[in-house]
Amino acid sequence: MGFRNEKCKERFIQEWLFNTADTPYREHIKPLTSCDNGSVLLETAGNKCSIITDPTGPLAACHPFVSPQFYYETCIFDLCQLLPSTYMLCGHVEAYILECSQVTGGTTEVGHWRDVTEKCGKKRC
Predict the structure, then answer these.
(1) How confident is the model at residue 15, as a pLDDT?
(2) 36 CB-near residues (< 8 Å, 6+ apart)
């Protein structure tokens, strides 16, 4: 069983490789943006993603149940690649809230994060 899983894992990894000779339109794939310490991108992404880790922010009620660190770090990585666009921020916040809801059985209320997050807007349903 372990052998099969290893083969599946390798196949999955190979499918996600995009900078290979057989990748169509390789010239359209942008290299990852550097988000080094001290860069403007890192500072901007960190400020926008800090809604996830803010101890007094709208998601603070989730912090005792789900560590925000992973969501914060992946948010920064994605925003560094996409700034000035911040549309991915909404997805990271929503993913954190979903994890919190699943862990707590939906008993934890979060604050009005859409009001303080650019471009996420009010939920339309």
Answers:
(1) 55
(2) 42
Are the C-beta atoms of residues 117 and 93 closer than 8 Å to each other? Answer: yes
CA 77 to each of CA 36, 44, 89: distance values in angstroms, whole numbers, following the listed order: 11, 11, 11
CB 120 within 8 A of CB 113: yes
Residue 1: per-residue pLDDT: 39
- State the pTM of this model: 0.70
Per run of 10 residues, the mean pLDDT along the chain (length 125 residues) is: 54 56 59 72 92 96 96 91 85 93 91 78 53
- Tell me the C-alpha distance between 90 and 29, whole Å: 24
Report phi then psi at 8, rounded to 5: -65, -40
* Residue 88 contacts residue 75 (beta carbons within 8 Å): yes
Q: Note whether 103 and 65 are within 8 A (CB).
A: yes
Dihedrals phi, psi of 36, to nearest 5 degrees = -75, 160
